[in-house]
Structure formats: C-alpha cells, structure tokens
Amino acid sequence: MDGSDPWARFEEWRRALDSLFDCAPVEETPAAFHGELVGYQLDPVLLGASRASAQRFHRDEARIAAAGVDHLLIQLYQSGRCAFDADGHAAEGRAGDIVCFDLSRPMTSVTSDLETVSLVVPRQMLRLAPRALDGLHGAVLDGGSAMGRLLSDHLRSLLSVAPGMNAADSRLVCEATAGLLSAGLASAAGASAVPEILIAPNVQAVQRFIEMNLTNFDLSAEMVMKRFGLSRSALYRLFEPLGGVAEYIRQRRLSRAALRIGSVGRGRGAVARLAHLSGFASEAAFTRAFRSRYGIAPRAVLQDPQGAGGWHGGRGPAVDDWLHAWMAGLSAAVR
C-alpha cells in the first residue's frame, strides 16, 4: 500500500473492505497504518490472506441487506487477537485460533495488529446439520486442540498451493476442505455435541439438497423422492424424527427467514421480498407460518426489531457472485 499520508493509506484499505465491513482505526491517528491482502478464487470457495494494523470492524444490517449473501467467513489468526461480538455472542480469538462468522448476521470486532488466513464458504457446502450451521456465528476453534492444529495446517498449506492450482484441482481440494471444516466446526461446538451435529450420509445428502433448494418453490417431498429414488415410505422413515419432510422444509425456510430478516429493509414490499427469498410462494402463507412459529407477524419485526416483544431472531443459544468480483479486485486495491 503506497502513500505517505496515514489517513490516505487507511482510506484505501477501508474502501477495499467496504463491501463486507465498516473499518475504523483503533488509534485516533493511524500514523503507522499498514494493510496487505491477497485473494484467490477456488470455486466455490474464496481464499484470502491479510496482514493489517489494529482496527475496529463493524458489519450491520445495511451491509447485510446490500449483498444478501449466505456465506460463512472462517478466519485463522496467525498472529494477534480479535475481541468480537457476534450478534450478541461475545468472545475472543487469539493467535492460532480459528473463528467462524456468519455473513448473514451482524458483528463487531476490535483487533490488535493481526495476520489472518480466511475462507469465504457457501453455507450449504459444509456437511453439518442445519441447526448446527445456524449456531456457528462466533464459534471459536481452539488453536491448541487436535482439530485446531490440523485445520490450521490445512489452511496454511491451501494458501501455499493456491497460486498454482488449476480448476480441476480446485474442485477436489474444496471438497476435501469442506469435510475438514465441517469436522473442525463441529468440534468447536464441543466434543460431546459432535456425534449429534455431523449427520449420517443418507440424511446428510437429503438435507444438503433441501438447503440448496429452499428458495425453489417446487421443493417438495415429491421432488426429494425423485431426486434420490426414494419411496414415500422410505422418505417418511428418514424424516419421521424431524416431523416429516414437508414440516422439515417449512421449518428450515422459517429459520432462514428469521436469520435474514435484517437483510430486506423496512420499506414497502419487505415482507413479500422476505417470503420470496425464503421460498414461500405467497406473502400470506409466509406470514401465517411465521406467526405460528414465532408468535409475531414478520411485519412487526421488520418495523421495530428491537421492540418486537418475544422476538429472539429465531436463534438458538448464543454460541454470489459479487463476492468473486470483490475478492478478485482486492489484491490490486490494497497491496
């Protein structure tokens, strides 16, 4: 990053990251600010490495609404530390730790001078139960744990080979990375929870298919049966513990709507837009289902999210294309 004016250097950095975060220097005058970032596209994963001075990061509902991405940001802190609040869940990542942020939800953080390796990963790529994915915002994988060391080594190796990787290698490596990330993030939720979070292959395949098609109005039990060659009775047995496949689809759509409710704005048509993004064919059907599950109309939450009594954002306990263009331009912007 060139230029002798510290504010000019920081402004260059801030503009480069503006699509994802609002940045501010920790010091009143960033006299010695530096920032370096390089990125690689390994479809469908984005890989980046950065080194920067201490600063504050903020991702609010306006930035979430501007992009509407459904990705996870997974960061290995190679040096430094980061204290953060992930939508009400406060924690800290230290050198060696791996932290996961859900880019569909707000967060703030304050870092020291920090060096990171980062992955931006589509949510549906991870082999985790949907309820586990929804609870990963702010999850910290201890860098001293076995899974932490293994995943850290993998991320560093991935960064070293990325410049020379071809498209075929990239697809294979991303598949392997998805499996390792899934195991590592399951471990971050607690060793006792891992057997319940990682799913059996047959259930996993169907659930991943459902997750990838939640916004498809044609998604139904019949569509799942045709895709996997299952009889109605076999599909029923598979999803009986979850209340049946139709109910499972409805609940997943409602959960996604709850997590994305801050991304559609508050103006005219916001409820209809949220219904459409969540896979509901009509605003009326969506409103009825949302009220039935959460005890409040979606319009009330959109108009006053803080004052909506009884609203907890549909979350459990505390625990796209534009991204490709953004990442591709980062190296030139902030070297």
TrEMBL record:
Signal peptide: none annotated. Residues 204-304 form the HTH araC/xylS-type domain. Coiled coil: none annotated. Keywords: DNA-binding, Transcription, Transcription regulation. PROSITE patterns: HTH_ARAC_FAMILY_1, HTH_ARAC_FAMILY_2. InterPro entries: AraC-bd_2 (IPR035418), AraC_XylS_family_regulators (IPR050204), Homeodomain-like_sf (IPR009057), HTH_AraC (IPR018060), HTH_AraC-typ_CS (IPR018062). This is HTH araC/xylS-type domain-containing protein.
